[in-house]
Amino acid sequence: MTGLPVLSILVALPLIAGVICLFVSANAARWIALLTTLIAFAIGIWMWTAYVPGGPQWQFQELVPLGGGFNWALGIDGIALLLTELTLFLMPICIGASWRSIERRVPEYMAAFLLMEALMVGVFAAQDLFLFYVFFEGGLIPMYLIIGIWGGADRIKASYKFFLYTFLGSVLMLIAMIYMVATSGTTSIPQLMAYDFPPEVQQWLWLAFLASFAVKLPMWPVHTWLPDAHVQAPTAGSVILAGVLLKMGGYGFVRFSLPMFPDASAQFMPLMFVLSGIAVVYTSLVALVQQDMKKLIAYSSVAHMGFVTFGLFALNRQGIEGALIVMLSHGLVSGALFLVVGVIYDRMHTREIAQYGGLSNNMPGYALLFMLFTMASVGLPGTSGFVGEFLSLVGTYHASTWAAIAGTTGIILGAAYMLYLYWRIAFGVQKNADAAAMPDLSPREWLMLGPIAAAVLWMGVYPESFLAPMRADIAALNARVARAAPVGDAQLKVGEAFFDLHMLWMLLLYINHS
Amino acid sequence: MARIAVLFSAGLDSAVLLAHAAHESPEWVKLTPTFVMLIGLWIAWNNYIRDPKASAAFVATFPGIYKFVANKWYFDELYDRVFVRPALWFGRLFWKGGDEGTIDRFGPHGAAYAVGVGNRYTTRLQSGYLYSYALVMLLGLIGAATWAIWWAR
């Protein structure tokens, strides 16, 4: 561990670059944003290698008192580390995706994105309750501007809906935070994670935090801002929204709801399972009938976040591991899917699925990558989606078999809507001459999608790389919630080992005999 | 070691049992696949080699059976009715009736509409006439005084 304030640098670097962007030409702003995000990503890689899995729970800690009870307290555990890496990884790709498609107010756009990056890193690194709140809420501002200024035709309505929806929930969270600080006498998140509030108080605090995180994630029935926001946002805005902003809701559950209010979490487990079950089935069915590509993927995001809440509130190790892998995987896959939509939107300027068809003929490279991300979204083994959804459902099954049945239905429906989408876009007859004349992926687009494809396969084939840094933190979290977790209805036990030498012997004999 | 030996002997027994079970099924069960194959072979030979017009004659005699088989037992249609259409119907119901018709209507859009309507009423209060403001102030004072005297003792 070095004395270098890495996390402060990761927050400050994009902030400074963002300010510089405002005073230069469009092209210079593009290059500054790209280089800054690449440097931040390089720092992130270094941070990952310097992070000691199984070492101290909080690493890269910094603490500067700001007076008045406020602290500049940063530090990350394994969970925050990986979510930070996801952010740093997606940012250069977002800048690349905006390279040509954004033509108006480029310096301001790049500044907004760099501000967004600083705030997102801040959310995952914050160790002070109010610092977290500032970063968490601050993230709304650049996203509000990105949708409202560079969005589609209906952008003003979508940006207001996004802002007011999420802000309303967060106000309740702020009230709960003030109460918590007043009672416990500390603003330090690590200390609060070990503080035991009385169970009857926990209920109210838990509900107040739910109001914020449920909207952010989003959970049914407070998800209706998401389709509008995604449809109107520019491609890179959608990528960040789906890739990182939604994960803040899940991160909030992991960092606050579960460890700080374990009794309430166990008490509200049925509520969370019902809401997750509805989310998974309901939004999957809605996704099936969408005619707008972005809306379809937006609804699929809500369904996938259902697996996150299923896994988290199963309150066991597999469930939490699965939920976190779903978060990371969905960050990559949904980001990639929005980029995939952006690629053809840039060529045809329509998101209507019916305008496309047969693209595998004229865009084979595109069809290949789109297929990979479709499969990852569906949860095909070998891709990241499988690992997360499988673990999450295993955990859910331990807690409630009915919930697991609802969740599994969602996987089937997920295959239905994603394959239906892929079929309508990449296969079939080419009925639109403009679509049939579109060129395949440019080198820039390969550079954007290729790394995500590699990461998706890496996470699918060797998830240990991603589970190892989080293992100790998940164990700690599990220990914290396990005492409150109710006993599940699936009484699983270790079976009698049947398939051993005995079985082999039997097979050999049988083959020999017949 | 003894344990393993027991395991092995148990395994041996069940393997023998399984092998026996495979051998003890009635003879006709084992011959069924062969018969079915032979029937197929005969039909194919009859319809393609001996008498190529026979298949057309069969279709003319039994149009129902022909259509049923040619349409793969209507399984695609069955699945379409049982799974695909209901799924799409529910999807549209949840989208138009649920998300747009209920959640948005009574949630954010409804709230925005209510604020708009409320604003129209409140703007009427702001008449700009001093006496109406004075009246409101007076009513407020009376209300506050009443509350202080009667209920807040």
- Which runs of chain B of at least 5 residues are low in confidence (pLDDT < 50)? 1-8
Low-confidence stretches of chain A: none
**Biggest interface, CB < 8 A:** A-B, 29 and 25 residues
The whole-number mean of residue pLDDT values of chain B reads 83
Q: Tell me about the largest β-sheet of chain B.
A: none
Short description:
The complex is a heterodimer of chains A (514) and B (153). Chain A is mainly alpha-helical and 514 residues long.
Explain what the structure shows:
The complex is a heterodimer of chains A (514) and B (153). Chain A is built from 23 helices and two strands. With 514 residues, chain A is mainly alpha-helical. The radius of gyration of chain A is 23 Å and the shape is globular. Chain B has 153 residues and is mainly alpha-helical. In chain B, 88% of the residues lie in helices and 0% in strands. Chain B has seven helices and no strands. Chain A binds chain B through residues 161, 164-165, 221-222, 224-225, 227, 282-283, 285-290, 413, 416, 500-503, 505-507, 509-510, 513-514, and chain B through 4, 7-8, 10-12, 14-16, 18-19, 22, 87-88, 90-92, 94-95, 98-99, 103-104, 107-108.
Task: Fill in the keyword field for this structure.
heterodimer; A: 514 residues; mainly alpha; two-stranded antiparallel sheet; B: 153 residues; 7 helices; rod-shaped; disordered N terminus
